[in-house]
């Protein structure tokens, strides 16, 4: 679960587990807001079109520069 989405005003959403169930944990500027059990619940807090998925790119360690 290395996924996360960011939005306006410091909003961040990450998958998490609560009581054995997967939830979408919403925080704003590092402070917990709520756990949502569906995307529809997240949509009540933020326009989903404003969210951007953060993708971790693989490290280039171990690769030599070509050129």
Helix content: 10-25%
- Average pLDDT figure: 90
Number of strands: 5
User: Radius of gyration over alpha carbons?
Assistant: 15 Å
Helix/strand structural class: mainly beta
- Low-confidence runs (pLDDT<50, min 5 residues)? none
Listing every helix as H and every strand as E from the N terminus to the C terminus, the arrangement reads EEEEHE
Kindly report the spatial arrangement of strands forming the biggest sheet.
4-3-2-1-5
**What portion of the residues fall into strands of 2 or more residues?**
35-45%
- What spatial form do the alpha-carbon principal axes imply? globular
Report on the biggest sheet.
Answer: 5 strands, antiparallel
Distance between the termini: 36 Å
Helix run count: 1
Textual characterization of the structure:
The model has no long low-confidence stretch (mean pLDDT 90). Strand 3 and strand 4 form a beta hairpin. The termini are far apart. Strands 4-3-2-1-5 form a 5-stranded antiparallel sheet, covered by helices on one side. It is globular and about 45 Å long. It is 10% helix and 42% strand. With 67 residues, it is mostly beta strands. It contains 1 helix and 5 strands; from the N terminus they run ββββαβ.
State the gist of this model.
With 67 residues, this protein is mainly beta. It is 10% helix and 42% strand. The protein has one helix and five strands, in the order ββββαβ.
How are the secondary structure elements laid out?
Blueprint: E1 4-6, E2 11-18, E3 21-28, E4 31-36, H1 39-45, E5 52-54
Antiparallel strand pairs: 1-2, 1-5, 2-3, 3-4
């Amino acid at each position: 679960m290395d996924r996360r989405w960011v939005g306006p005003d410091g909003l961040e959403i990450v998958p998490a587990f609560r009581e054995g169930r997967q939830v979408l944990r919403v925080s704003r500027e590092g402070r917990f807001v709520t756990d949502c059990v569906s995307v529809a619940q997240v949509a009540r807090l933020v326009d989903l079109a404003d969210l951007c998925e953060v993708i971790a790119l693989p490290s280039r360690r171990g690769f030599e520069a070509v050129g």
